[in-house]
Design brief:
Length: about 300
């Protein structure tokens, strides 16, 4: 199954402003990137690099005045929903792979120590492993009201728990915090997700945030916001929390004006404008200060 995914950002800046964009699908996961194209107007030279988490980032400088950043891609994905394994076991901490330990620690938006007692009070009854993670998702999905508050660069999982509401990034942050408090490695993921296999009406398309946990011998996808396996996820960024995967980071007084996102089944002639596949794309580190402007649109 092929998806047409992409986004467009508009900025206004007085002086030329260095920037980094993190909107390209990762190339090391289950989906296959078939084609992609960047358009930056006015023209800006750019290059790709990979950050500490292996995310693909694009580095460039916005010209003074109005600038538009557009990214389009054609991606081949499985037509199957997120895989499920109710028998996936939880490891004792001493048996976890070394590289997963960073995802058991507190991070900027996931204050594990603060909610540790809450997590054990709520979930100590559950069986370690898949059932415990699902219990976390069920609780967050049933007790946190979507859209009740709008995230800012200061909104942590503790704030979301206290307010009883938030956006999709907040659902992910709270579930991650609970899982880490229960000694389950958990990491933040954001990307494109089409409305495939679910009934409408659909809200306007946007980026989406979910999380992954390490059980057995692999990472598994969970989504506290929708709390059901979905079809067509295309991960863009993976990190400790949203601070590691802001969509656009600007190093100067650039004003965010508008953002549009698309993720839909590919139809013939949808991508006539795309050139042959190129390798001039990039990876970047993402700062959290840009988060409030862009992440508030992550549903």
């Amino acid at each position: 199954m092929q998806l047409h995914v992409g986004c467009e950002f508009t900025y206004e800046s007085t002086p030329p402003t260095p920037a980094v964009a993190l909107v390209q699908p990762r190339t090391d996961l289950a989906h296959t990137l078939l084609n992609e194209r960047w358009q930056i107007r006015p023209h800006a030279d750019r290059h790709e690099y990979r950050d500490l988490f292996g995310n693909r980032c694009e580095r460039f400088t916005l010209s003074g005045g109005n600038s538009t950043i557009r990214y389009d891609a054609l991606v081949d994905v499985t037509a199957e929903a997120d895989p499920v394994d109710y028998t996936a076991p939880q490891h004792e901490v001493e048996n976890l792979p070394d590289e997963t330990l960073v995802y058991t620690l507190a991070s900027r938006y996931c204050l594990t120590e603060t909610l540790s007692q809450v997590a054990w009070h709520l979930f100590s009854w559950s069986t370690p492993g898949w059932q415990r993670v699902q219990a976390v998702c069920d609780w967050v999905h049933n007790n946190i009201r979507y859209g009740l508050i709008t995230s800012t660069p200061m909104t942590t999982a503790v704030d979301v728990y206290a307010a009883g509401g938030g956006m999709c990034r907040d659902f992910a942050h709270l579930a991650i915090t609970f899982c880490r408090a229960l000694n389950i490695p958990a990491r933040y993921v954001f990307g494109y997700m089409p409305d495939i296999g679910i009934p409408g009406p659909f809200s306007p398309m946007d980026f989406h945030a979910w999380f992954e946990v390490y059980l057995g011998d692999r990472w598994w996808t969970f989504d506290a916001r929708f709390n059901t396996p979905r079809i067509g996820r295309v991960p863009i960024g993976i990190g400790r929390d949203a601070v590691d995967v802001a969509m656009v980071t600007t190093y100067g007084p650039a004003i965010f004006k508008e953002m549009t996102v698309w993720a839909e089944l590919f139809e013939e002639n949808d991508l006539e404008f795309l050139p042959p596949a190129t390798t001039n794309s990039g990876l970047a580190r993402s700062e959290g200060l840009m988060l409030a402007r862009n992440e508030r649109r992550i549903r």
